[in-house]
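User: Teach me something about this protein's shape.
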Amino acid sequence: MVTSVNAGSRLDRLPIGSFHRRIMMLIGIGMFFDGFDIYLAGTVLGVTLKSGFSTLPQNALFISATFVGMMLGSFAAGFLGDRYGRRFTYQFNLLVFGLASLAASIAPDMTILIACRFVMGFGLGAENVVGYATMTEFVPARSRGKWSGFTTVCVVTGLPISLLVASLIIPQFGWRAMFVLGGIGALIVWYLRKALPESPRWLEANGRSEEAEALMQSIEREASQGQPLPAPAAASGVAVSSDLATLFAPPLLSRMIVGAVCLITINTLLYGFITWLPVFFIKQGLSVATSFGYSLLMALGAPVGSAIGALTADKWGRKPTIIGASLISVVLGIIYPMISDPVLLPAVGFALTVPIYVLVALLFGIYIPELFPTQVRMRASGIVNTLGRGATIVTPFLVVMLFEARGVAGVMSLMIGLLIVQIITVWALGIEPRHRSLEELKGEDAAPALAKQTT
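Assistant: First, the predicted structure itself:
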């Protein structure tokens, strides 16, 4: 059997078809439950607090346990994914999340519920790393941005869906039913994902050439539908070490800096602004009903922004889209605290939410996984995701301090500062992966990339 499989070039030449749609479905539905459960916390905790099952400090501990679990899950997934494969790690994290969610539904007290939530967070953090990276490795370079970006749409759709489902389910069946839904959904996807193939890129990078070749032939038969395929490009001659130290030396060190800055920024935007909107509105004198109405309206910007990011990444390029969305967010972030009109406030808020979620699609779903070669993709993504999740642990304290000192304007000053740092970092150190094979990007450093853009 042929051992020199050239999996990357052969995957990049395939026409988009049923194979890619099946991969998208298996990954996307799992990512949906990831988003559903992250956003579920807000609806559940309000009920547990009102019923006396939890106290306000316990609710804060519940949220902290979620993010600590996600941080550790992101880190562990990187090492598991590079060592044991994408498929194994994907199945493992879904099983952990699904079983922990079902256990949470029968928790006798808040202490046990918090412990279950920590385990659920571990699975959720792993899902985030593995899902995006796996999608990146299957989709052809010419449309990788669109398909990878739509996995983010699957995640953020969980926000309005969780709010809607909670409004229907909790009054009838109580908050425990939400964990049952999340757990059963995850286990159904775990079963369906037995049909998810391993990444041929990972198999080849780990010396399992015969398995990679057999899998590539099967994929090509399905994708070609009997039609001749174009010849693949020549295999990349750039060798990349799988040692962890590779991540902290050129050319990957600059990419690690880009990944860390971007994920710290976007996590702070999400968990320092978006999730605090109801609190901001109430503190500004709005009623609870009006506050949640405004928040839901702005939440609709999440799938809109993610879809825009997915549809434009291949046309405009990753770096221009990231920098452009960041600049728009800065401008609207300056304007937003100045608005008090009850009609303009949610409208400007919606307009601000859209570019933030363009960044969510670009950074989580598309750009970060593309930065790293197959040999270290999971570990690198896991480490920068860990740093991004780590930021969410301190973000609530910063938000409270800034809000009490200067109101929403104080919170937005933090967001704007981070966005400016992100713009400079991506411009100076980022590479441009648009329409380029992952293998082509292996040895490219930031300096040549910057020179190429200015010629």
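Now, about its shape. The chain has two domains: 1-225, 241-455. Residues 18-51 form the longest helix (34 residues). If you'd like, I can walk through any region in more detail.
User: That's plenty for now, thanks!
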